[in-house]
Design goal:
2 domains, elongated
Length: 208
């Protein structure tokens, strides 16, 4: 079991928590993480990019001039790609960019990402982040107390913790996700990963 320090909202160490080595202490599998992140980002692409080829451009039905005798290069239509206003040669067409990564790979990638954060001392666990009401000022004070100012911070909160989400969402360089939204890209794309011990235990249970 990996022992990780737990800090409070004032930035002081209050306790340690034991987390499973099978989730937070494995050797990160970089190729699998890369493959899963590429698949995730590919799924975000709409694939609606399109251009008109020479058959889709209007006009150009008649041959511009006769084949021989004019001294100019032979041309069959003014809508050929070399003409201004002509069709596009080898342009993009609508298609899917989806790549597949199975659930086993996704879980291994997330375990690798969490283990990498622990190894790099970029995982920050806090005991509680609940506020009585949404307050960006209090949220900024927490970030300052945790010595994370200026860093790109990813905060993973419980799905039902709306107050914490509303408190942190307007802070610069801070991105907030619910526990169910966490994926490999979310866990990696930051300089510090912050979550409560409850969320860490939740991820441990899902990924074990």
């Amino acid at each position: 079991m990996s022992k990780i320090e737990v800090r409070n909202a004032q930035g002081k160490a209050t306790d340690t928590v034991e987390l499973s080595d099978s989730v937070f202490g494995i050797e990160p599998n970089v190729p699998v993480m890369h493959q899963v992140v590429v698949a995730y980002e590919a799924s975000l692409r709409q694939g609606t990019h399109s251009t008109k080829n020479r058959s889709a451009v209007s006009g150009g039905g008649a041959k511009p001039w006769r084949q021989k005798g004019t001294g100019r290069a032979r041309q069959g239509t003014i809508r050929a790609p070399q003409w201004a206003g002509g069709g596009v040669a080898f342009g993009p067409t609508p298609h899917l960019h989806t790549k597949r990564a199975n659930n086993k790979m996704k879980k291994l990638a997330m375990r690798s990402a969490l283990s990498g954060k622990v190894a790099d001392a970029e995982l920050v666990l806090v005991d509680d982040l609940s506020f009585e009401r949404p307050s960006t000022k209090q949220a900024a004070a927490v970030i300052e107390a945790l010595e994370l100012e200026g860093k790109r911070v990813t905060l993973v909160v419980d799905d039902d913790d709306v107050i914490t989400y509303l408190s942190f969402r307007n802070l610069p360089k801070v991105v907030v996700y619910g526990a169910s939204e966490a994926n490999t890209r979310v866990l990696l794309d930051n300089g510090a990963l912050v979550m409560t011990t409850a969320v860490a235990k939740q991820l441990e249970e899902v990924l074990a």
